[in-house]
């Protein structure tokens, strides 16, 4: 078992039976009181942030986490089927691990997946931006570039995004997967 002093920012550990990632770690020595570690940690399953104080000798379970780049192949219910690019092994990844960005991921993109002990996926990260084609939107008119007015558009994977008035059906756009916002038109 490791102690709290072995932790650093970004480490994964088990806290109250849940997998958490250390976001902030401060060593405090207030006046003539005993020193302690103030740790801010984020639960990887639900995203909730918790803070706790630990004494320097407290034992914690640091998890061995391995990250791999895997290609997203297709969706199967509440799971995404991903393939390891080196061994061609396929895994089922829960969509909840991607969070909001799962709606904007298209087939063929590379995901960064973190595994606990090499087998259980605990986090997944989509690329920051994806280029997708607009399958339907109201037609744009000449001169609609002057204002920042947005209209709804349907992407090739069925997700909906708001785009400027000059974007037409069949055009490719760059989307931010973290927020779901339109960034620019791609030629």
Description:
This protein is an all-beta fold. It has three domains: 2-62, SH3 type barrels; 65-125, OB fold (Dihydrolipoamide Acetyltransferase, E2P) (Beta Barrel); 129-186, OB fold (Dihydrolipoamide Acetyltransferase, E2P), CATH 2.40.50.140. Helix content is 0%, strand content 54%. It contains no helices and 16 strands. It has strands at 2-3, 12-15, 18-28, 36-43, 49-54, 59-62, 65-76, 79-84, 90-94, 110-116, 120-125, 129-137, 150-155, 160-164, 172-176, 182-186. Strands 1-6-2-3-4-5 form a six-stranded antiparallel beta sheet, with no helix packed on it. Strands 9-8-7-10-11 form a five-stranded antiparallel beta sheet, with no helix packed on it. The protein has a five-stranded antiparallel beta sheet with strand order 14-13-12-15-16, with no helix packed on it. β13 and β14 (160-164) form a beta hairpin.
* Low-pLDDT residue intervals, each spanning 5 or more residues: none
Could you report the average pLDDT, rounded to the nearest whole number? Answer: 89
Overall spatial form: elongated
From the 3D coordinates, which CATH architecture of the largest domain would you assign?
Roll
